[in-house]
Write a structure and sequence with these properties.
alpha/beta; 196 residues
C-alpha cells in the first residue's frame, strides 16, 4: 500500500478531552461527545483504501474501539503539536509510503470522500491541507517530510491555517486544500449536529 492515513486521537479520559466544551457542559458530557467524534472517525476511515495508524496522545490502547486488525497503533512523540505531527508523518514517509495524510478527531463534518480527495490532490501537489472554520486545519498531507511547515508561532489560534500556508509557500511547495469544515471545540460548534 502506498498511502498512509494517520489519525491523531486523544486517549479519552474524563477531564482531559474537549476541555473547552467541558467548561459549559461538564466533563462527563464533553467526554461523551468525544466518544461520538471518535466513533464517527472510525466509521468513515475503516473502509478507506489505505493503511491506517492511530497515534494516541498518551498511551496505546489495544482494548479500545479502534480495531487492531485495521489500525496500527502508536504514541505521539514531540514537545508540541507541530513536532508531533512532523514526527508521525516523517515516520510514515521513512517507512516507504508515497503519500501520508494526517487528520484529527474533532471534525464531525469530515467524510471518507474528503480524506480520499486529500490523497488525490497529493498526486499533483506537494502538500494538501484542510482548513477549519476556526482558523486552524483538520487535515494535512505530504509526499516528503518538512519540519519547517510545522513551526507555527502558537497553536490553537485563528492564524494557524494562514501561517502554515505562508510556511508552505516559503518552502516553495505546491499545495491544494480540501473543503472548509467546522471544528467541534465550543458549544456553538454543536449546533445542527446530533452530538448533543
Amino acid at each position: 500500500m502506498s498511502n498512509l492515513l494517520i489519525i491523531f486521537a486523544r486517549n479519552p479520559e474524563l477531564g482531559k478531552t474537549k476541555t473547552r466544551l467541558a467548561k459549559t457542559l461538564g466533563d462527563e458530557m464533553a467526554l461523551a461527545i468525544y466518544y461520538k467524534l471518535l466513533s464517527h472517525i472510525q466509521r468513515i476511515t475503516k473502509d478507506l483504501d489505505c493503511d491506517k495508524t492511530v497515534y494516541y496522545s498518551g498511551h496505546v490502547d489495544t482494548e479500545d474501539n479502534w480495531d487492531n486488525e485495521i489500525y496500527k497503533k502508536k504514541v505521539q512523540k514531540g514537545h508540541d503539536l507541530g513536532e508531533k505531527m512532523h514526527n508521525a508523518i516523517n515516520d510514515g514517509l521513512q517507512a516507504g509510503y508515497k503519500s501520508v495524510v494526517l487528520i484529527g478527531t474533532d471534525i464531525y463534518e469530515l467524510t471518507s470522500g474528503i480524506i480520499a480527495s486529500g490523497f488525490e490532490k497529493l498526486k499533483s501537489n506537494d502538500v494538501v491541507i484542510g482548513p477549519a472554520k476556526d482558523g486552524g486545519y483538520y487535515l494535512i498531507g505530504m509526499k516528503s517530510p518538512s519540519k519547517a511547515i510545522f513551526q507555527i508561532s502558537k497553536w490553537s489560534t485563528p492564524n494557524v491555517f494562514n501561517e502554515t500556508v505562508a510556511l508552505i509557500e516559503r518552502e516553495k511547495f505546491s499545495w491544494a486544500k480540501t473543503a472548509l469544515l467546522n471544528d467541534i471545540d465550543e458549544l456553538e460548534d454543536l449546533k445542527g449536529t446530533d452530538l448533543y
